[in-house]
Amino acid sequence: MSKSPMNDDAWKNVYFHEVCDVNPTYKIADGEICSFIDMASVAEDSPQPRNIEIREYKKTSASKFRNGDVLFARITPCTENGKTALVQGLTTEFGFGSTEFIVLSPKDELDSKFLYYMVKDGNVRNKAIARMVGTTGRQRVPNEFFRDELEVSLPPLFQQRKVAAILTSVDDAIDATQRVIDQTEVVKRGLMQQLLTRGVGHTKFKQTEIGEIPAEWGVVRLSSVSNLITKGTTPTTYGFNYCENGINFIKVESIDEHGNFHEDKFAKISTDAHAKLSRSQIQEGDILFSIAGALGRAAVATSNILPANTNQALAIIRLSKGNLDVRFVFYTLLSSIVQHQIKMISTAGAQPNLSLKQVGDFFIPMPHVEEQLKIVKIISAIDARIANEKQYLSSLVIFKQGLMQVLLTGNVRVNVDEPSEVSV
């Protein structure tokens, strides 16, 4: 790639509809078996649809598309989140899907992959977002934005293909890294099940309330090894509002299913609110455990997120010092041992909530501390590998965003004689 000024002979400004059909008319007969893509199958970070089903088409409102078309999600928050797909892998001539797709079908002078990256890029997407109409929460990009209004700058077709090939190589690296993360998560779940029920090096086992475990282990209720099991309150109950800056306020959505905090999803409260909500002030080493909404998520509070507070959807578990390692209990709470107990409770009740008493009544295994630490060390090593892969994935995404910004504007030109793969 080499830097050069824009060359009007090489790049041309055109109305989008001159190079791309918007919502083309494809004929699908009533009762015909076709490929189907719903909104949930369209990713925010990959051109490939996650899932393509086979369904019977019935005369109903639906978007219609074929291989090589691009699906642009037009409704909030999907538009803002970047949901876009390059249609690939249809096993029938035409497919159908959500009415909330704008279907973009490139003409001969526009490469389909370049089209995907062009409308995925913030330059076009931000213009689309600014053009959204409708009531709050149900705003949509009007078809007229693509059909009548949008102007774009295009390089020659051979340069489009080169740009698309470069960006595709980065997407391939992103997909490969995500697969490594997913596969490692599967390995971790299997390893946790083995280690937390069979231990390390045992040959004798016994039946207990949580199933078969090593004969040397005990089983205890969580409350018997905890100094405190409590929960928080919504700040507005006491007249406090959330702030732009202040004390971290952790909600269920701040914790993912793997036990990680997402600090970008923390709310903020004032120091006065934090002082008033003294019962739920979080300490280092506390385990936060979700008891409403997405049940059974857990995370261990570390010094870098403190001071912090939480609401009534998260239980605070503060272990007694002595016979149980915090990380061992954390992994146990995420394991099938406790998740099965949650399932039994939630199946019996109508509301997907857990009481503090029910949390305290959880049965958990209790090996000797030395073995707990061995188990934690093994699982933590897997966590470290996952964290490294996620960090690499994040760097790839940032790298791709930078490439799109310069390649799709012509600020950096491609050399068609260079390899399409880029060093990542």
Give an overview in words.
The chain has 424 residues and is α+β, with helices and mostly antiparallel strands. The protein folds into three domains: 14-154, Adenine-n6-DNA-methyltransferase TaqI, Chain A, domain 2, CATH 3.90.220.20; 158-216 and 369-424, Helix Hairpins (Orthogonal Bundle); 218-366, Adenine-n6-DNA-methyltransferase TaqI, Chain A, domain 2, CATH 3.90.220.20. Helix content is 35%, strand content 21%. It has eleven helices and 23 strands. The strands form eight sheets. The protein has a four-stranded antiparallel β-sheet. The protein has a four-stranded mixed β-sheet with strand order 5-4-9-6, with no helix packed on it. A hairpin with a 2-residue loop joins strand 12 and strand 13 (211-214). Helix 6 packs antiparallel against helix 11. It is elongated. The two termini are 15 Å apart.
Summarize the structure.
This protein is α+β, with helices and mostly antiparallel strands. Helices cover 35% and strands 21% of the residues.
Total strands: 23
Predict the CATH topology of the largest domain: Adenine-n6-DNA-methyltransferase TaqI, Chain A, domain 2
Proportion of residues in extended strands: 15-25%
Rounded to the nearest angstrom, the radius of gyration is: 27 Å
What class would the helix/strand composition place it in?
A: alpha+beta
| Whole-number total of structural domains | 3
Q: Reading side by side through the largest sheet, how are the strands ordered?
A: 3-10-7-8
CATH first level of the largest domain: Alpha Beta
CATH level-4 homologous superfamily of the largest domain: DNA methylase specificity domains
State the distance separating the first and last CA atoms: 15 Å
* CATH architecture identity of the largest domain: Alpha-Beta Complex
Averaged pLDDT, please? 91
Oligomer: single chain
Largest sheet: 4 strands, antiparallel
Helix content: 25-40%
* Low-pLDDT segments: 1-8
* Morphology: elongated
Count every helix, treating DSSP H or I runs of 4 or more residues as helices: 11
